[in-house]
Write a structure and sequence with these properties.
Layout lengths: L9 E6 L12 H12 L3 E6 L2 H4 L8 H11 L3 E4 L3 H10 L5 E5 L2 H4 L6 H20 L2 E4 L4 H4 L10 E2 L14 H8 L6 E5 L10 H9 L8 E5 L8 H7 L2 E4 L8 H8 L4 E4 L4 H5 L6 E3 L3 H14 L16 H23 L1 E2 L5 E2 L15
Parallel strand pairs: 1-2, 1-3, 3-4, 4-5, 5-6, 7-8, 7-9, 9-10, 10-11
Antiparallel strand pairs: 12-13
Helix pairs in contact: 1-14, 4-6, 8-10, 9-13
């Protein structure tokens, strides 16, 4: 470990989601978080565990890669940026540095609309997430309701609630007409953007489709667009070209697209899921709806009837969600767990020797595993 007061803190970020040519939108929130950490002066190395390409055994073959990265990079802390088996393997078996684990939603809530095989795998994943949370030195959840999903693995007062941030320099209001023309969309239609995720059943695309189908064609006929396979660089254009964002998910953590939509001035119609109610509370033009086609359609009609973007003054309320603000909060967590790990592992005895400290630490885990 580095002891120089002038050296930058180094973070080894381990993730199973990161943008690629084949999946440009997958794990963008992780990429943005890395960008923010670098912007606040941290040195970050990303270790991408490609579960899609290498299969589930990739998580059990991480040891050599992690050991090599630790030896070469000498990180102050390891941040595993998603839960499940990956977080469990890192938190319990790679404790050469303090470990922080972030949980985003499905890794704690499961996938309740998947087939039986996937559902059983998901249940094992949520079990591993809670075990990882218990073993980690620091725990982050992206929304407050996820604390309950930990089911007591970590005391609630020892969990940090830090939503993923957004790039407010890119996600801001643009000319909707220009954006529609850029995408080749009709300017006389009511464009509904569905925050889909490559056919994920949890997002309930059929519910979204049924809701839009119930909107009458009087005035501006509705058109449904799926935000799938779009590079992150193009997402602000899609959000500004759309007239409403529709979210119908069975469960969520803290959906980044909702924050991005509001920052762009796009009205949101959503079921009461994740922290969406908190994000759109008091915003004129945004609506919560029952998970039924008729109510979702009715709320979308209210947006169409109003025919306005959100108040530009709302941008100020998102400052706390900027990638820089979130990065500063994570930096404080890193400093905390490294400080507490040093205190927990070394207690000076009267003769000056160091002896292990087996007392509980103050935050992040119930006890220290030596």
């Amino acid at each position: 470990m580095k002891n120089s007061p002038n050296s930058h803190m180094r973070i080894l970020a381990i993730t199973n989601m990161y943008p690629s040519a084949a999946f440009p939108g997958r794990g963008v929130f992780v990429q943005e978080q890395i960008k923010g950490l670098c912007a606040v002066g941290l040195e970050v190395r990303v270790l991408f565990v490609d579960r899609r390409q290498d299969g589930p055994m990739a998580y059990y073959r991480m040891r050599n890669k992690i050991s090599r990265s630790v030896a070469e990079f000498d990180p102050d802390a390891i941040h595993v940026m998603y839960g499940g088996v990956m977080a469990d393997q890192v938190a319990r078996h790679h404790r050469v540095r303090p470990v922080m684990a972030t949980f985003h939603g499905s890794d704690l809530l499961g996938e309740n609309l998947s087939g039986w095989t996937r559902k059983m795998i998901s249940r094992y994943g949520t079990y591993c997430s809670r075990r990882a949370a218990k073993a980690a030195d620091g725990v982050v959840v992206v929304a407050r309701h996820l604390i309950g999903a930990l089911k007591g693995a970590v005391p609630p007062d020892k969990v940090h609630v830090i939503p993923c941030g957004i790039d407010l320099e890119r996600f801001q209001p643009m000319d909707p007409l220009v954006c529609k023309q850029k995408l080749g969309w009709r300017t006389d239609s009511f464009h509904v953007l569905f925050a889909s995720s490559n056919g994920d059943a949890v997002k309930r695309p059929e519910l979204a489709k049924a809701a839009v189908a119930q909107i009458n064609n009087a005035g501006r006929p509705p058109e449904l667009h799926y935000l799938t396979g779009i590079s992150n660089a193009e997402v602000p254009v899609w959000l500004n070209a759309s007239d409403a964002l529709l979210l119908t998910s069975m469960h969520e953590g803290s959906p980044t697209v909702v924050k991005e939509a509001v920052a762009c001035g796009l009205p949101v119609v959503s079921v009461d899921v994740g922290d969406v109610a908190e994000r759109i509370q008091g915003i004129k033009g945004c609506h919560l709806a029952q998970p039924e086609p008729a109510d979702l359609a009715a709320k979308l009609c209210l947006v169409r009837q109003r025919g306005q973007r959100l108040d530009p003054a709302l941008a100020g309320r998102h400052n706390e969600l900027s990638i820089l603000s979130v990065a500063q909060k994570l930096k404080q967590c890193y400093e905390e767990i490294t400080r507490e790990r040093r205190a927990a592992r070394r207690v000076k005895s009267p003769d000056g020797l160091s002896i292990p400290n087996i007392s509980p630490v103050n935050r992040g885990t119930a006890s220290v595993r030596q």
